[in-house]
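Input for the complex:
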Amino acid sequence: MSALSKNTPGALETARLIAAGQLTATQAVQQRLEIVKDLEPNLKAWVSIHESEAIEAAQMIDSMPVSGKIHGVPIAIKDIFAVKGMPWHCGSELWKGRTAEFDAGSVALARRAGGIVLGKTETTEFAFYQPTRTRNPHDLSRTPGGSSSGSAAAVASGMVPLAFGTQTSGSIIRPASFCGIVGFKPSFDLIETGGVAPLSRSLDTVGVFARSVPDASLLVEALTGLNLQPDASANPTKLPVYRSPVWDQAEPELVSAWSAFEEGLAAKFSVHKFAPEIELALAEAPDLHARIMAAEAAEALAYEYAEGPETLSEALRAELEKGSAISADERLRDRQAMRSLRHLVEGLVPRNAVWLTPSSTGPAPLFETGTGSPSFNRIWSLLGLPCCSVPLLQTHDGLPMGVQVVGAMGNDGGVLTVADWLMARFGQCWSQQN
Amino acid sequence: MSALSKNTPGALETARLIAAGQLTATQAVQQRLEIVKDLEPNLKAWVSIHESEAIEAAQMIDSMPVSGKIHGVPIAIKDIFAVKGMPWHCGSELWKGRTAEFDAGSVALARRAGGIVLGKTETTEFAFYQPTRTRNPHDLSRTPGGSSSGSAAAVASGMVPLAFGTQTSGSIIRPASFCGIVGFKPSFDLIETGGVAPLSRSLDTVGVFARSVPDASLLVEALTGLNLQPDASANPTKLPVYRSPVWDQAEPELVSAWSAFEEGLAAKFSVHKFAPEIELALAEAPDLHARIMAAEAAEALAYEYAEGPETLSEALRAELEKGSAISADERLRDRQAMRSLRHLVEGLVPRNAVWLTPSSTGPAPLFETGTGSPSFNRIWSLLGLPCCSVPLLQTHDGLPMGVQVVGAMGNDGGVLTVADWLMARFGQCWSQQN
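Predicted:
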């Protein structure tokens, strides 16, 4: 059983209609609230929906001249971001009942650009692995992935055209893959993280979900002022494919879809190769990523651990204890190794490089088994590189899987352009296809 | 007129006495609270003093076996850190009346190590330049410096042996210099910044104030688990002096004291030289630092600007508007330039390098004129290098000024060892000298 709304306009289209006077922000919000009412009982994507505040904000926007990039566009915010007057539970027992007193910097920037916050979406506990109650819109018996579970499900189902997520290991690209939508994790540190509950300061990255690449670009443009719309005239001659050191973790459904995808690239197919010293280092990258994440999480969540270890899930408690047990010298060495590896890649990989690799090990697993594996994401999160997942693959049963476009540090525009080209050539947004 | 308490034990000494059963944490706290009562009317270092909570926490510590590095040691926390149940005003009109619901990660780590929080200390508005009401303990007509004004004054006056500060441009080293104490800004990102109000994510660094180098080391050891006690057997053969590209901003009193200091180094004196490509880049560093800080502050404080521009000081409002006006492409170029410069320095400066440079342009200016200039700090903040200010210099009128020990990225231990050697050879903590 699925829960998808068809034919909702995307973010660019919504903004265009509002600017043209063919739709008001208030109507746009009301339309989405209708869909939310319809689908939420099955999906459970939201921590809280703020109907009256959203309509009030939309009326205010309707009374103002069009200015920002997302003037009147409804958005959803993952519940590790602070949003004034809304819950800020971070998926945790400890913070149940907390209300934020301010907006995270990125949320304030989205509002400045005209975005209307509909509410807060479910997140795994502090963006780690403890599953939420959210279901996958394509198959309610499956997980939407984590940690940005609610944001991905809300966008995939058509409840909102845009949502905020964060990625520390695979928390944007993986749920985008499982939910058949576009997920974009920009270059590390491109978007302000103030007011977002921290998990691992070397890795935490704010990113977005949308149902098309230009829509994802639009939200990041609104937050950064950059021009990131994909170059529609681009026609890449070669699309380098990189199966990566974790290919042995690909599940049969992915292996089969991926091979078909490589064949489909035809003359554009090429094999991506890193310099040997990078290749060597990448084999160690997943373990390095996991150690840094655990060590930094133990520092970032020191208060939560002290205050109520019994309110934490067993998995998170174990992670924090694992992190605390890593010696100070090993932490220093690990972070030095990460910095060196980032330098090495920045020095040896051409600035305009882009390559394709799977977004996830396979399709969304069953709900009861957790939020899926971030194996195909850890390396790129460690390197801080821009990644965009596009919904191009499917299983025999029609479940979505993503192709991950990764690029050199700072090549966010190049990644989005290739992602958009792939969508135009091979796909369409999954949730519109069904 | 000054306001200094003499002969209070340092942090290591306090911890030693408590561990030896010669002092209880409760007594240690009560002694400090007496001093606070005495001096606070003149110094105005505190936003809030939490007497009963501190005594309660001390009694709890007294009932437990000695474990952490700062078991029972009173500490003060700059009011941009969240401390549960205490004010979190960030020196701002907008946040007047706010109480934090959790501890910043670093505060939780300090408590885990046995530290007792006495209260929150005055900070300039969001750690920018709007002065606080705090006075300099050595001369009440002067500023303690900013932004960590209250923490520096509280340590200098003997109200606490240890305090937390942060530095984005010169907010630890400058007030340490003006207040005649030890200020230590570790390597960028060594200490968790979660729960600290952000100003500029590429630069914000948590650090400490103390009245001796080993005491400063102790607190950073408690937070990181590293072994950072200065090597007391070290005897540097050469102490490279670097007057830096901003030497022309040195005031006459500094020029004269600095020349005498250089002479005093005698055979150990040498001139520090960077590679020519670094030297070239450092000339641009202060401007680059200022642009990055403004651009990132405009993102970090987007909510505060949107919510109540009229509650912000004129200077901060102007800074945020200056930051917003910097184009997205220039922001990217600037941060790329910063990263390249950090790489360059990491590649060309030996890992064990240490050099000496002034901490501030001169002594503490008069209270009415602001919090002093961060000129001698911007470069090192931009590079993210560890810096320690030691109170070795004075004006003809006996006002303190600091010598800044700077080291290669990650050489926190080397910086502290040289700082300690300098103190042993040339100085003693200023506030004990008077």
